[in-house]
Amino acid sequence: MLTVDFSRFPLAPGDRVLDLGCGAGRHAFECYRRGAQVVALDQNGEEIREVAKWFAAMEEAGEAPAGASATAMEGDALNLPFPDDSFDVVIISEVMEHIPDDKGVLAEMVRVLRPGGRIAVTVPRYGPEKVCWALSDAYHEVEGGHIRIYRGDELLGKMREAGLEPYGTHHAHGLHSPYWWLKCAFGVDNDKALPVQAYHKLLVWDIMKKPLATRLAERALNPVIGKSFVVYATKPHLPQAAAAETGESAASGTPAAEPVAGTAAKARKAAPGAKSGAKSGAKAPTKAPAKSGAKPAAKPSAGAAK
Fold first, then answer.
1. What does DSSP assign to residue 98?
2. Which end of the chain offers a freer environment for a tag, N or C, measured as fewer CB atoms within 10 Å?
3. For the segment 100-127, what is each residue's pLDDT rounded down to a tens digit?
4. Residue 176: CB partners within 8 Å, gap ≥ 6?
5. What does the angle CA 180 – CA 184 – CA 187 come to, to the nearest 5 degrees?
């Protein structure tokens, strides 16, 4: 089940994608299927090993097109082991609410994203998340748990301060908010409560079968109680770089080249990307990452029922 809507966040074959705080890898797998050169990064070694196994299984099953690549690696969201402008796309889903230095994470994502590149950020939505916090302290007062609740304008403001230009937002997983309210009401670790079990079966059935009735219901519920808030943004080209290239082209009488062509080519050479993180092993990063900052595995993502 995906939180990022790829109809609003286009991905082209060959795009270099960083799934930051990838967790179980759901967005990384979808990007791999779409032909991208994917790096799935998380601080949790156990989850990374599982993601690497799935990458290898997908390669063996022929689920990824020719030219796609996938690497799973441990790393620190506050100290990414990649050169500047290494990626065309960055995804960070249900992670920033866990990290104290969220501005630092945004700065690192902007650093490794090429000018003109795209970024998708998803966090728990303020209203449904506020209900969860009111119903249960255990929902968020755990090691690695949620430490903040974002208002939409707050997240947009922080992204703009980091140098990004948001171009679209929406809410997702309207069917999942009631599930988490039930979990909080009956105990976040109590999976035996009948209402929780019944609703979980409904969600699994919906994910597997995708019936029209629940698809329409979720579409109606998303604007009202959607569990996740999703923002799409771009990293603008540097004005001085664009002006310099325009001036050079005007002086020579030739058409202006695409401003990021040189940067993109340079970054494409520098970006990592083994064929499969499980089969061939992830290449050693340029910096040894510390093991803090990306999403911990102590608590399942509140953006979706697993």
1. G
2. C
3. 999 999 999 999 999 999 999 999 999 9
4. 203, 227, 303, 304, 305
5. 125
